[in-house]
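Listing S7. Sequence submitted for prediction.
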Amino acid sequence: MSSPAQESHTWVVEAIGGVPTTEPRPAIALGEDGLITGTTGVNRLVGTYVAEDDRIKVEGMGLTRMAGPPAAMDQERRLLGALEGWQSFRFGNGRLQIGPADTGLVCGLAQPGSTSIT
């Protein structure tokens, strides 16, 4: 990815496929060691990722299996779909975009201490 400093942040997912997320908002962290951790808003996730040039692929992702309200479960489904296969990504101005605008994620940096997903 671009730099280890950017990878160590927690990113709050603000939109999926152009649709704003609802509370509790999903969040992801991309570790320097290739580990992705986070929350879908309902379930916790953990896996690994590979980054090459301006593309990223999440691999071996595992989830807890809790049920939530239908809207939250739909948001989770869309989040997981946006992380499937190779996706483009880019950083800039405290933002992270993964995938295309019509299906991808738009994330903002979490405020320090506001989201814990480790």
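Caption to Listing S7: primary sequence and predicted structure tokens for the chain studied. Residues 1-7 have pLDDT under 50 and may be disordered. The chain has two helices and nine strands.
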